[in-house]
Write a structure and sequence with these properties.
The complex is a heterodimer of chains A (98) and B (371). Chain A is of the alpha+beta class and 98 residues long. The relative contact order of chain A is 0.24. Chain A is globular. Chain A contains three helices and five strands, in the order E-H-E-H-E-E-H-E. Chain A is 23% helix and 19% strand. Chain B is mainly β and 371 residues long. Chain B has one domain: YVTN repeat-like/Quinoprotein amine dehydrogenase (Methylamine Dehydrogenase, Chain H), CATH 2.130.10.10. Chain B is built from one helix and 31 strands. The chains are: A alpha+beta (98), B mainly beta (371). Chains A and B meet through helix 1 of A and strand 6 of B.
Chain lengths: 98, 371
């Protein structure tokens, strides 16, 4: 199971209160996590990336193991720490505004 | 219970405010969707318990929420607004071609004729329709693909389709207004559209009486008289008595005819309300005084309504979707401000009182009359 942490707005939208645990298809990739997330919570479609598995929204970031994965290709494999559940996959609303 | 339910969209969430028919004591619920920018909340006339809201934001884009219990609970519905055909370009602020891109929903308009049908006016300007209560959305592309589309330019707030008016008698006739393209009308349920801007005069465009290009801010219609339309344009308050074919100015003695909202009294088709704003370079009311202006003669002759409204040191704006009327026997009128106040009048504007003073900036106000 892969642990996913959502920002507050998306937790509210999805009706979840804490981090999620998701089954992700092998091999586990960034795109696979997002597919599983949108499949389990369809109301998140279009909020992280464009509909139909499109581009990441500009102010959405993906972090794991203290690394910024936002610019990695969707088919990038996740690290062993994320796959094992030791570390979460973080969906973050970028710092913006003033 | 007879009463009213006010639906308020703000920069940081939605609020629902209810009262009985006396409209003296108010109950405020919210914020719903806290932190989201809610351009519009609208209820169905056919089923007042059904309400739609359009939260959006720069981070997570557009969401549509639906309530089937009068706003007590909400569920997200479809949020995919995909243009129906090759989008092409419209003009950008600098006159260069710019690809059509969906930004947000500005306005939701539940159908007068079918409870599961709802329209959405969006930026970049297009009209979408859902026939399954918001689960899925399809564009009515005849408007966006009108031959003039490539010449449309955004107003300062974006190229938005902000007004959808349905003819209560003829389901095939719909009016849409776009900043800054103008008014369009369909008589075939949205397949084809014609510009309806004859008589408009706008100094801010090269051809001042062009067929399209006018920054129309808002349209209003009384349901008993669908041929008569009132318009608050960027500058000028206008009126048409032939379904938009021709417009004439009715600004009359208004101290300024710049503004955003316009509304028609529920029981008097020739009683019209506007909120004049100093100018397009000063988006606040004149002289520090918040004044609604009322015409009881269908325009030209206007009176200031000030009782209960701040008459000094007030510098707020009232946006295009932020004024509404109820249809109780004594017509109620409501508006929200950029300062977060929502004011109510239970006597056609003669006197006013704030319902709330400290909401986030108000983007929209709708009212449902409950019987």
């Amino acid at each position: 199971m892969i642990r996913v942490v959502l920002p507050a707005h998306l937790r509210s939208l999805a009706g979840v209160s804490s981090e999620l645990s998701l089954d992700v298809a092998d091999p586990p990739t960034i795109g696979g996590v997002l597919d599983a997330l949108e499949s389990a919570h369809p109301m998140l479609r279009g909020t992280l990336r464009e509909h139909g598995g499109g581009a990441r929204r500009p102010f959405v970031r993906f972090y794991a193991c203290e690394e910024d994965l936002s610019h990695e290709p969707a088919d990038s494999l996740l690290s062993a720490e994320v796959v094992s559940g030791k570390e979460p996959f973080l969906v973050v609303g970028a710092m913006a505004g003033g | 219970m007879t009463g009213v339910r006010i639906l308020v969209g703000t920069r940081k969430g939605a609020f629902i405010i209810t009262s009985d028919g006396d409209r003296r004591d108010w109950e405020v619920s919210g914020p719903h969707f806290p932190g989201w920018e809610v351009y519009h909340v609208a209820g169905s006339l056919l089923d007042p318990e059904r309400i739609y809201a359009a939260p959006s934001g720069g981070w997570f884009g557009q969401v549509i929420q639906r309530s089937d219990d009068g706003g007590k609970s909400w569920n997200p519905v479809g949020n995919e607004f995909r243009y129906a055909s090759e989008t092409g370009t419209h003009q950008w602020y600098d006159g260069t071609p710019h690809p059509w891109e969906f930004a947000r929903v500005w306005h939701l308009e539940p159908s007068l004729h079918d409870v599961d049908t709802v329209y959405a006016g969006v930026e970049d300007a297009a009209l979408f329709r859902s026939t399954d209560a918001g689960a899925t959305w399809s564009e009515l592309p005849g408007l966006r693909t009108h031959p003039s589309g490539s010449s449309w330019q955004p107003g300062a707030g974006g190229m938005c389709l902000h007004t959808v008016l349905q003819d209560p008698v003829d389901p095939q006739r719909i009016f849409a207004a776009i900043s800054a393209a103008g008014v369009f009308r369909t008589d075939d349920g949205g397949q084809t559209w014609q510009p309806k801007n004859h008589g408009l005069h706008s100094e801010g465009i090269p051809d001042t009486d062009a067929e399209v290009g006018h920054c129309v801010h808002r349209l209003a219609m009384h349901p008993s008289r669908p041929q008569t339309l009132f318009m608050q344009k960027h500058w000028d308050v206008m009126r048409s008595d032939d379904g938009g074919d021709n417009w004439r100015e009715i600004s009359g003695n208004l101290p300024t005819d710049f503004g955003f909202p316009v509304a028609v009294h529920a029981h008097e088709p020739d009683t019209v309300f506007v909120v004049p704003i100093t100018s397009d370079s000063h988006h606040f009311v004149m002289d520090g005084k918040l004044r609604v202006y009322r015409s009881r003669s269908g325009g030209d002759e206007w009176e200031a309504l000030t009782t209960g409204l701040p008459q000094e040191n007030c510098y707020v704006n009232v946006l295009r979707d932020a004024m509404a009327v109820d249809s109780l026997d004594s017509c109620g009128l409501y508006f929200g401000t950029s300062g977060g106040q929502v004011y109510a009048s239970a006597d056609s504007g003669d006197s006013w009182a704030p319902i709330v003073r400290d909401l986030p900036a108000v983007l929209s106000v709708e009212v449902q009359t409950l019987t």
